[in-house]
Every structure is written in C-alpha cells, then in structure tokens.
Design goal:
alpha+beta; Jelly Rolls; Arc Repressor Mutant, subunit A; 2 domains; five-stranded mixed β-sheet; five-stranded antiparallel β-sheet; 12 helices; AraC_XylS_family_regulators
Length: 300
C-alpha cells in the first residue's frame, strides 16, 4: 500500500498551507481500496455512499452512509468499500487545530455549559449518526461543490461552524471528546483564553503568564507567535478599541471609562488613549458627536 498525505496528495492545486479549511468531494470506483494515510489536517469524512473502516492507533471504527466521522491529524489505515449501487462518495472537510480552537473560543460559554464540569475522555476519532438536518447539511455542501470551484475560506468557516454548532447542541459529549493532537495548539488556546478573557481587567502581563503556568519569557515568546506583536502593545490596542467604542456612546462619561477597560486611574488611561488616538478621551467623544451631528444634518 502506498502512503497518501492528505489533503495535499489528492488535490495539490487546491492545497495551501496557510488555509485553515479545505472542502472537496471524493469518489472511488475500486470495489475495496486500502490506504496508509497521513493526515496533515483534521478531517470530517461525510460519507454519502459506501462504507469506511478506519484503524487509528489501537482502535478502529466502521461507518456506512447513515453516519460520518471526525479524524484527528495523524497516521491511520483506511479501507473504502463500494455501496450496493457500486459507488463510493464522500465529502471531505479538512480543518486545522487553529480553526477548532477558534470555535471553542468563540462559543466558550456554550462549551462550558454543555461540558458541565465533566471529565470527558479524549478520542482521535468520533462518529455521529445522521439525522434530517445533517443529511440536508451534507446535501448543501454537495450542491456548493457542483460549482466546480474551490470554496472560499469564509464560506468554509461558515459551514464548519454551522456543523459544529449543531453537534455541540445535539451531541456535546461526543463532540467534546475530539482531541487536538498538537500540544502547542492547546497551549496557545490556554493563552488566548487567559488574554482575551481579561482585556478589560487590571491584569498585568506577568499575571497573565502566571495564569498560563508559564515563565514570563515563554509567555511573551508564545504570545508574539500567536498575535504577531508584544503583549503590551496588543493589550494597549485592545483596551483602547474598547474605550473608543464606549466613548462613541454619548451617554458615556469620559471620566467613567478608565475603570471599564482595566485602568486604575483616569490619568494613566488618558495618557494611553492620547498615545493611541492623538487626542484625549473627552476630545475624541466630542469629535465623534460632531461627526454624528453633521451626518444627521446632511440627511435632512
């Protein structure tokens, strides 16, 4: 058996290392096809016709066209068998660890609600039975792929989130068992949770490193890799964007904003705000109110 590297070997023209998603159809006319597969991305194998057997580590599973499976990146043995109609069809949705962790970040409240403090086992593959919604979901992908053009990343993201959100609501205990193999990705996830959950709190960079159980130097290095800038610069920009949004509300008093973005004094907040926007918070609010008034007058 040859070794197949997925997704790049089957569609090299469409594969780009920087993309977080790739959705493509797959068909086979071989009655029984066995492969050694190295998955370089996680994969959702949406089976339409046929039967699929996967051996991953010391475990195996077989699904037919009334189910589908998630496979974590890694090495596995697969066997594809034609249906009684003499056909094997599937839609393959590849996704990165980053994409999965982004989903968990975006819907963290729901994830924690469904997890309910349970210690779920980790699994390199999970399976789901199809229901009416999932069959229609697969059909929607099939129709999209008939356009014979690669789906844009934005569309892939929407379809990925649609599926995961539905599974999170209907089968959370199964979905949340799916593990991310990359330990570095999990560390990045913990950093993002700590950092993005504390933007408006008076938490220092040293304290964020402590929350992540890292030395300050390790935290700064990993932070820069994730966000492309230093922790101090990123936090300043995020706090000031929140402050600017608050100040665009004419009901907000400039003197009340500093506490809402994690500053302990109005003077230090004003200094940072002026550094970012070139004006004081009061002047920024006044300028914004004048712009709004001019727009209203122009409409009259």
């Amino acid at each position: 058996m040859q070794v197949i590297n997925l997704p790049q070997d089957l569609n090299p023209a469409q594969y780009r290392e920087e993309d977080h998603f790739l959705i493509r159809p797959f068909t086979s006319l071989c009655k029984t096809k066995k492969n050694r597969v190295i998955l370089h991305r996680n994969m959702i194998h949406l089976l339409i016709e046929g039967r699929k057997t996967v051996i991953y580590g010391g475990q195996s599973t077989t699904v037919n066209d009334d189910a589908f499976l998630f496979l974590a990146a890694g090495s596995c043995l697969t066997t594809s068998v034609l249906s009684d109609k003499g056909d094997y069809q599937a839609i393959l949705l590849y996704f990165s660890d980053h994409a999965l962790l982004d989903f968990y970040m975006k819907y963290d409240r729901l994830v924690q609600q469904y997890r309910q403090g349970k210690q779920l086992p980790e699994a390199s593959f999970i399976t789901f039975e199809k229901d009416i919604f999932l069959r229609n979901y697969i059909e929607s992908l099939r129709l999209m792929l008939q356009m014979d053009q690669p789906l844009p990343q934005e569309v892939c993201l929407l379809k990925f989130e649609e599926l995961l959100f539905y599974l999170l609501r209907t089968a959370p205990d199964t979905l949340l068992q799916f593990k991310v193999n990359n330990a570095g990705s999990m560390q990045d996830f913990e950093i993002r949770k700590a950092v993005e959950g504390n933007i408006t709190r008076p938490v220092t960079v040293e304290e964020l490193a402590f929350l992540c159980s890292m030395s300050l130097s390790t935290f700064k290095r990993r932070f820069t890799k994730i966000y492309g800038t230093s922790p101090q610069r990123w936090l300043l920009e995020q706090k000031m964007q929140v402050a600017a949004r608050l100040l665009r509300d004419r009901q907000t008093k400039p003197g009340d904003v500093y506490d809402k973005v994690g500053y302990e004094s109005h003077s230090s907040f004003s200094k940072s705000f002026r550094q970012m926007f070139g004006v004081t918070p009061s002047a920024y609010q006044e300028q914004n109110m004048n712009v709004q008034a001019q727009r209203l007058n122009a409409q009259d």
